Amino acid sequence: MAGQGPRILLYTGKGGVGKTSVAAATALRCADLGRRTLVISTDAAHSLADCLDLPLGPEPVQVADRLWGQEIDVLHQMEKYWRTVQQYLAALLAWKGIDGLLAEEASVLPGMDELAALLQIVKVYDDGEHDVIIVDCAPTGETLRLLSLPEA
Predict the structure, then answer these.
(1) Residues 26-52: what's their mean pLDDT?
(2) Which CATH number goes with the domain that contains 93?
(3) pTM for this predicted structure
């Protein structure tokens, strides 16, 4: 795959059809074939860690030789990339009398989870550290919103 960007494989479909199991199995096989592989879950109801029987977090974690896993967390991404904007929105909502915790939750705007997932995938792609990026997508409706976002 020299001279090319990583290959991205998306596993999509309704919830409960086995996307996570197939994504994890594909990731393990790609790593076994010598490909530096990252498997990412974009589903807020993460089950990739359960499937791999290993703890995963919002940043890539090596889970085997040539295999990394990650469960995207929109709040982590917000803190990492948009903390200033979120702080401003939370302060604005708090100024209007909304409880601090509620203001923080409300400052995650609709679509931010899809945007955070897309930006993370683009970042991993651009980093070029992996040969294969496997995306264990959220159920179809959420994934359609993710894929309909304009190019970052």
Answers:
(1) 93
(2) 3.40.50.300
(3) 0.74
